[in-house]
Design brief:
The protein has two domains: 4-138, Glycogen Phosphorylase B (Rossmann fold); 163-333, Rossmann fold, CATH 3.40.50.2000. 34% of the residues lie in helices and 14% in strands. The protein has helices spanning 13-17, 20-29, 65-73, 87-95, 107-115, 127-130, 153-165, 190-202, 216-223, 239-248, 258-266, 316-319, 323-333; strands at 4-8, 34-40, 55-59, 79-82, 100-101, 174-178, 206-209, 230-232, 251-255, 270-273, 290-293. The protein has a six-stranded parallel sheet with strand order 8-7-6-9-10-11, with helices on both faces. Strand 4 (79-82), helix 4 and strand 5 form a beta-alpha-beta unit. Helix 3 crosses helix 4 (87-95), helix 8 (190-202) crosses helix 13 (323-333) and helix 10 (239-248) crosses helix 11 (258-266).
């Protein structure tokens, strides 16, 4: 009997996309398998066109876990994979009977590295490969390929129309930039972004700024650097549309954010700026088409996911990253 798999990962953008190498491996090893993914409704577009997934269940805001569990119990899953392992997913595991399997989050090693600066990680695998621990019984192994974000024809058409409207439809050298970040300590200073834009425009590139609605004002400020060569898409697209723009770009520059993983998953080379977080956590870009720009400071890492302010008050991990270094990384990775 082919496996009937339920994989649970509620959030966020990067974490969900990093499950796709496992989902791909399950379908390749078990062509008859049925794969269902449970996530938050807001993240449905990340998997809506993925051919390795039969169904994506979106948890609506306010829906109770008991109601959700009633639905899931009727689907008779043979394999239950908790790829989140947080309070909500643990409660779900109690409500939906079966043999649940999860993956190592290495919470103690992470805490030691953050607070004592002692690296006790024995598991050097990136997170996409750690997810495979939950499915070891299915005899699946990583294929080494990057995550996947499949873009639908509607989003491709939307992105093409927008590029046409801003005069960049035929532009061969587009650099997409994601200047925002949910956490302040992951943000590169605005003046550094301006300097990088100056470098790129002088080099003949066009720049497209991407992000959510909360990044719109920042993107508007950066557009003033070169209005005819910098276009603001922040807040104008959903996940699928943003993915389509990233796919159209030649390269992407991002902090340690979901956009970084979106770029990797659509196959666009990416330069990622890392400050408060480090490679040991497992969230570096999972692709060969990437460069990471970071500084070897003794205070790193200071947090697992970023925070509202630098604990030491200097924020050197991001402030000291120079635009010239990012520009050089872009030149190295550009197709």
């Amino acid at each position: 009997m082919p496996p009937n798999v339920l994989a649970v990962r509620f959030s966020s953008i990067g974490d969900i996309l990093l499950t796709t190498p496992l989902l791909r491996a399950i379908r390749h090893s078990h062509p008859g398998a049925r794969v269902t993914v449970l996530t938050k409704r807001a993240y449905l577009p990340l998997l809506s066109h993925n051919p390795h997934v039969h169904r994506v269940i979106g948890l609506a805001p306010g829906r109770s876990l008991t109601s959700l569990a009633t639905e899931l119990r009727g689907d008779e899953y043979t394999d239950l994979l908790d790829l989140h392992d947080n309070l909500r997913s643990r409660v779900l595991r109690l409500l939906v009977p079966g043999r649940w399997r999860t993956y190592p989050k290495h919470r103690l090693a992470r805490a030691l590295l953050i607070h004592a600066k002692r690296n006790r990680y024995r598991d050097r695998r990136p997170v996409p490969e750690r997810y495979f621990s939950a499915a070891g019984h299915l005899r699946v192994v990583p294929d080494g390929a990057p995550p996947e974000f499949f873009i639908g024809p509607e989003a491709l058409k939307e992105a093409a129309g927008w590029l046409r409207s801003v005069g960049l439809e035929s532009e061969p050298n587009i650099v997409a930039m994601a200047p925002g970040a949910a956490h302040a300590t992951k943000r590169w200073p605005v003046e550094r972004w301006r300097m990088l834009i100056d470098h790129l425009v002088k080099d003949g590139s066009a720049v497209v700024l991407v992000g959510g609605a909360e990044d719109t004002q920042l993107a508007v400020e950066l557009c003033h650097a070169a209005p005819d060569r910098v276009a603001n898409a922040a807040g104008s697209f959903g996940l699928q549309g943003t993915g389509a723009l990233l796919q159209r770009a030649g390269t992407v520059v991002s902090g340690d954010t979901g956009v970084m993983h979106m770029a990797s998953a659509v196959g666009t080379p990416v330069v990622a700026l890392f400050g408060p977080t480090v490679q040991a956590f497992g969230f570096f870009p999972y692709t060969r088409l990437a460069r990471v720009v970071e500084l070897p400071l003794p205070c790193r890492p200071c947090t697992a996911q970023g925070g509202p302010r630098c604990p030491l008050g200097h924020h050197r991990c991001m402030l000291d990253i120079q635009p010239g270094a990012v520009y050089e990384a872009l030149r190295q990775i550009a197709p």
